[in-house]
Amino acid sequence: MRRDPRLPATPDTIVVFSDLNCSFAHLAVHRLHQARRRLGLEGLLRFDHRCFPLELFNRTVNERPGVDSEVSVVGALDPGAGWRLRQGPDWSYPVTMLPPLEAVQAAKAQGLGASEQLDLALRRAFWAEGRCISLRHEILDIAAGSGCVDVDALAQALDDGRARSAVMDQFTAARHGRVTCSPHVFLYDGTDFANPGVRARWVNGDFGVGFPVIDADDPTIYTDILARAADLAAMAA
């Protein structure tokens, strides 16, 4: 039987469907890295980032007013992730996240470690530094700064588009499966967590008009996620 394409290929891997321009995903990815480090599971568990491109689902750019309205609310849940209100003019705001999403997929040719570190560096560059991460030179500069990526190999992959189909394949898998949002985390046994630990709603209008209210936030769920993944990996060893 063909394995569900949304699930990790190996028990020691955690799949994270997300968009880079998603504050809730930035929070989740930060907490995943923190929990893995805290539990001493670095080198034992890996993150496989998959694309949940909001611009394709919504058929529009992820509007700056909506994104800006989330920063102080979601950022307050964990300031350590790195946040800043964007200072640049509107014309410097990324209109697409497809190039950096593609870069994260392309980096997998160098191993999941390179891919997950590039993903983390891109998120921090966007959310904490206000950089336009849709630009090729910015992606490559960020990759160089990560210290984990062969920048020349990444540049070649971006220029010939070899990872572009992976972005679209993952979009299709998310669109026609049980991936419901950014972020959505999946474990090898099929256990999944949509926007782990956080329950939010919008008041006085939808995204871009109103503002988010956090009704619940339980960061301890990341300990549970990592511990369960570690148990799955140990059972398979």
Q: Short summary of the structure?
A:
InterPro entries: DSBA-like_thioredoxin_dom, Thioredoxin-like_sf. Residues 13-191 form the DSBA-like thioredoxin domain. This protein is an alpha+beta fold.
Q: Spans with pLDDT under 50 lasting ≥5 residues?
A: none
CATH architecture descriptor name? 3-Layer(aba) Sandwich
Compute the separation of the termini in Å: 22 Å
Helix content: 40-55%
- Structural Rg: 17 Å
CATH homologous superfamily caption: Glutaredoxin
Estimated structural class: alpha+beta
% residues in beta strands: 5-15%
What is the highest CATH level, the class? Alpha Beta
Main sheet attributes: strand count, strand direction, barrel closure: 4 strands, mixed
Strand order of the largest sheet: 2-1-3-4
Describe the global form.
Answer: globular
**Which topology does CATH recognise?**
Glutaredoxin
Quickly count the helices: 9
Number of domains: 1
Give the SSE string.
Answer: EHEHHHHHHHEEEEH
- What would the average pLDDT be, to the nearest integer? 96
- Number of E-state strands: 6
